[in-house]
Amino acid sequence: MKAAQVKRTYSKIPVWIVEDHHEVVQHIYRAIGSRHIPMKEVKMVHLDSHPDLLIPVSMSAQTVFDKEALFSELSIENWIMPMVYAGHVSYVAWLHPYWAQQIREGEHEMCVGRDTSTNTIRVSSTDDYFLSDALYVPAEQLQDGKPFHLSVIRVDPAQASERNQDKDEQNTAKKSKPDPQPGCSRSCAGMLQPADGSSSTSEMPSVAKSTTSAMNSLLCVLKQDESYILDIDLDFFSCKNPFKEMYTQEEYSILQELYSFERPRVDADEEMLCECVERRTRQLEDLEVTFAELLEDDGELTVERLADKPGMKSLVKLVCSLKSRNKSPDYEMVHQAGLTCDYSELPHHVSSDAEIQQLMLAVRFVLQPLPKPTLVTMSRSSLDEYCPPDQVDSIQSSVLNILEDLFGSLEVHKDYEEASGENTLQSS
């Protein structure tokens, strides 16, 4: 019986590279099944221009216990939280570039559980990210709740002139790495200091402050002998909002108007928050029905009838514009684009080669003092163009070089090349 509980180790760190981000879940589950990663309370360091912390809105909570059904329900924006509800993941550090601002900076504690009224997975967080998708419910309304800790950490590009300072601070990091304790916060002992040993001052470059803060936060949580997942979306380094190229500025502005999210007051109580979620739920359901009807019939009479509904007046202009460019618009895709237009736009920042290299340096600086990850998962996100296709191969190569330099030999599995027979097999 004891043998079944022994944690196994990989001879080389496996790196699973997929195209669409939710495809990493099968590899995480495989590592759990092979006992390389614990069944419960796994920690994840998640580098991405997107949080990926939404939840399949209508999915039954019970689905998380049916692996194949779960895989069929997941998408690129909602693959993490079902693992939290299943008990596998308890902590995520979302490391994001400066252009990604979907969740407020800092520490977030929440409960992820089953909503007793709908049997769907919901959260107790009141951040706009969750409210705008109508995912909030009061904690007392959640059953089988799992505590979830989210750290939102900004990583700024590092200047090439800071390379020497980077090396010095990496050595400092090794020497001053703390012994993390449960409940450790950013104020815990043994924090990283500037390379000269002085305390942080306004003279320090802002990027050094940013990346040092990121390392301090992570070192408080990740213990030296503890399993964790390092997850990297290559759009962390350069990111597009593909919908901006699919629709005109006028069409995009109309979508922002139709799908706009009415924030609750800053001092909103629980009743106000629940009313906000109810309004948002009705709004999104009405929009989904509207575009489903347009799929069946987008004739003038239908469009005018739908536009008579409250808040839908601009629908006529939107449909006319869409049909002027395409006689049969993909209204399902239009709805998906609209769902990204709530309290903020999707991140859109195509980085120059120089900025990509500055971000690579910053990521190296952040990862260097961390323990070796048990498993690395990586998403290219290029076919849907969240990561620019003309940059993705170069970014991928650079990231792999950094990982090999920091953590030693890797066993790289290019799962996106499976169809061409170039995928390597995972070894125990």
UniProtKB/TrEMBL annotation:
Domain of life: Eukaryota
Biased composition (Polar residues): 196-208
Region (Disordered): 157-208
Bias (Basic and acidic residues) ranges: 163-178
Stretches that traverse the bilayer: none
Classification via Pfam families: UPF0489
Family: Belongs to the UPF0489 family.
Protein name: CE022 protein
Organism, as annotated: Tachysurus vachellii (Darkbarbel catfish)
Upper taxonomic lineage: Eukaryota, Metazoa, Chordata, Craniata, Vertebrata
